[in-house]
Write a structure and sequence with these properties.
The complex is a heterodimer of chains A (about 325) and B (about 350). Chain A is about 35% helix and about 20% strand. With about 325 residues, chain A is α/β, with parallel strands linked by helices. Chain B has 14 helices and seven strands. Classes of the chains: A alpha/beta (about 325), B alpha/beta (about 350).
């Protein structure tokens, strides 16, 4: 098994490189992705190696990045669109929701919307406004789209390739605060399917489910809880829409308690959906109601105070305490 | 004449007009063919309006007045070109060979599309204004990457000319020198919004600011529309980049069957445009210059009547789809929520689930 250590940013870069090598129809398009390599350097060196026709520096217009990717998809190309930041995806929202999601249906299957929209999401990098948002639920609610998120370099490397090969349009959420964290990448074999939920750490008392940036937070919380005698099972949802519920159900049937964690506010959120599904599916196994740890229902705050908005280890542990306290 | 900038090869009276840059290349037979297209599509459009009034269609978007713009452009396209329409491009769809009943599937509300866009190289109707202009530019960028001698053409109206997507499409087409024609039918009205509220300069002049040529053509002159569009497509196919064509025309009818234009425009304006009718002027030319007899026009009328009757029968035969078909083609691959919905529908007895 050939494994190597790299950052998530590098893993995405290598995954994109491999996709470009494998399929001549794969294109990358986005703002500043060529010479600069993207503001996060995810596409570093790719234009030099694959040319300006395949790694396309886009004029600054997000709707056009997605809208032209639709036309390219109709022509048989697979375009990976880079949205520079989460907060800049909204100009493209119309194309994503009105066209990308619906064109397969509208054409009775004649069109394959094989495109990926990469979205550096969630906060934690001390940026200014519009650079730290969690818009995943907007897309999760739209039939025709799929939404996934990676939390490790190995997943980043493989999931981006799997997303590009997939025939449905995929919103690919990258936790930008984890771009520079290193991990082992297995270059030979994908660890999981693209839409599979994974148990990251086994436990017996409480199931804690997250995705993207919150996984690291949850794992830290699990370490701390263990020292206090509470065993947390950590689940990485990975697929945000659709949810892969079976592994969550198995876990909650075992633990009887669960907590969801994401940076987005909880109103009509992925956490809310998980709570609803698990309550319905695991009703007789539950020893406490599911609790959501999330951002607050306010505009994302100035980042000097963002760590009081984003779920912290303490807030996860507090939620764990609350579900543990429901013992009857 | 409407203004000096207008490319016109045929006057409203059906007289030939000299133009320094464009000459008609069409034979009498070909012009008669265009007349036939226009007469048939007008007849089918009227039948569709009737069908809506009789409760057989949810909605209809008439093209009356815009037949020359659409037939001229549609016939200028090569089979290998690809068009990206709105919901009103029935004349283009006709030229692409799409059966009329397929055009009405959307309006009968049995489909969100109606035809196989890859087969006819004519995309499905786009209802959100301007979205399709970007699809066309993307498609054109694909043509470039394939090294093909083809062009994309997108249709939109004066209303959509204010949309960000349309203007972004102009930027991208110019920056990438994409093989595309932007065909704007300025029919003067976006429901009740006059074109004067959309633009303070003639729309075709916007092209200059984006860095490619713009042409205003008499949209009620099928000969001029044909030549202008043909040249723009030919230029696009060989690396000449984009062209904006503004087909200056008029929406004689309502925006859709849900609209009431008497609330916002005066009859006198409609009367002026009646004298510029696109079908009558080419008929006048054919009668005078090619001595086409009235019986030949009558034959087209009879042919159109037969087609209209068949269209009516086809529409009435379009029954409510099995509800379970809503799950088809939502995704390319199996999706648990789609499967869940399908299962529920079968369990509740809403559908036998034959799909």
């Amino acid at each position: 098994m050939a494994t190597t250590t790299m950052t998530m940013a590098k893993a995405l870069n290598e995954g994109l490189r491999r996709a470009l090598e494998k399929d001549k129809k794969v294109l990358l398009m986005g703002e500043d992705i060529g010479k600069l390599g993207g503001v996060f350097r995810i596409t570093d060196g790719l234009q030099k190696d694959f040319g300006e026709d395949r790694v396309i520096d886009a004029p600054l217009a997000e709707s056009a990045i997605v809208g032209t990717a639709v036309g390219l998809a109709i022509r048989g190309y697979r375009t990976v669109c880079e949205m520079q930041f989460d907060g800049f995806v909204y100009p493209a929202f119309d194309q994503i929701v009105s066209q990308v999601a619906k064109l397969r249906k509208r054409s009775d299957g004649a069109y394959t919307m094989g495109l990926v929209i990469r979205l550096p999401f969630q906060g934690g990098i001390g940026a200014i406004e519009h650079h730290s948002e969690s818009p995943e639920a907007y897309f999760a609610q739209t039939g025709g789209l799929r939404v996934v998120s990676c939390s490790t370099p190995n997943d980043a490397y493989w999931m981006i390739q799997q997303a590009i090969e997939h025939d449905d349009p995929i919103i690919f959420c990258e936790p930008k605060s984890r771009y520079w964290e290193k991990g082992e990448v297995d270059l030979d074999q994908a660890p999981h399917g693209l839409f599979e939920t994974v148990v990251r750490r086994e436990g017996s008392d409480v199931t804690v489910i997250g995705y993207g940036s919150t996984l690291k937070t949850i794992l830290r919380a699990a370490d701390t809880a263990a020292t206090e005698g509470v065993s947390i099972e950590v689940i990485d949802a990975r697929s945000i829409s659709p949810l892969d519920l079976d592994p969550m159900v198995r876990s909650v049937e075992k633990t009887g308690r669960f907590v969801t964690v994401h940076e987005a506010p909880h109103m009509a959120s992925i956490g809310s959906e998980i709570v609803a599904e698990l309550t319905q599916r695991c009703f007789y196994s539950l020893r406490a109601p599911g609790i959501r740890v999330s951002g607050y229902h306010v505009p994302y705050p100035p980042t000097r105070i963002e760590e009081d908005y984003r779920p912290t280890v303490d807030r996860v542990l507090d939620a764990v305490d609350r579900v543990m306290g429901f013992e009857n | 004449m409407i203004d000096e900038e207008l490319v016109q090869l045929l006057s409203p009276e059906g007289e030939r007009v000299e133009h320094p840059e464009y000459q008609s290349t069409l034979s009498g037979d070909e012009i008669f063919g265009l007349y036939r297209d226009m007469a048939i599509i007008r007849r089918l459009c009227n039948e569709s309006t009737s069908l809506q009034r009789q409760g057989q269609l949810a909605l209809w978007a008439p093209i009356q007045g815009q037949e020359a713009a659409q037939i001229g452009a549609g016939r200028a396209m090569a089979p290998t070109d690809f068009s990206f329409p709105t919901y009103r491009e029935h004349g283009i769809a006709w030229c692409r060979g799409i059966p009329p009943e397929n055009m009405l599937r959307l309006f009968r509300a049995v489909s969100n599309g109606g035809w196989d866009p890859q087969k006819y190289r004519h995309s499905v109707p786009t209802i959100v204004l301007g979205n399709q202009a970007l699809h066309a530019v993307g498609y054109a960028m694909g043509i470039q990457r394939d090294g093909a001698e083809e062009a994309a053409i997108t249709f939109f109206g004066d209303g959509a000319s204010s949309q960000g997507d349309t203007l972004e499409a102009f930027v991208w087409a110019a920056s990438f020198n994409a093989p595309i024609v932007f065909f704007c039918q300025n029919n003067q009205w976006g429901i009740s919004t006059p074109s004067s509220l959309q633009s303070k300069v003639p729309l075709y002049r916007r092209a200059e600011g984006f860095g490619f040529p713009g042409v205003r053509v008499d949209g009620n002159d099928v000969l001029a529309v044909y030549e202008v569009t043909k040249r723009a497509l030919e230029s696009a196919r060989v690396g000449g980049g984009p062209t904006l064509i503004e087909a200056y025309t008029y929406r004689m009818g309502a925006h859709t069957t849900s609209d009431d234009p008497t609330r916002y425009r005066i009859d006198a304006e409609v009367e002026v445009w009646k004298h510029r009718d696109p079908v009558e002027r080419v008929k006048a030319l054919l009668a005078r210059e090619y001595e086409i007899k009235s019986s030949a026009f009558d034959e087209v009328g009879a042919e159109a009547d037969v087609m209209a009757l068949k269209l009516r029968e086809d529409v009435l035969a379009m029954s409510r789809p099995d509800p379970i078909t809503m799950f088809d083609n939502a995704y390319a691959t199996e999706h648990p929520l789609v499967e869940e919905g399908r299962r529920e529908m079968i369990e509740l007895g809403i559908s036998a689930g034959s799909h």
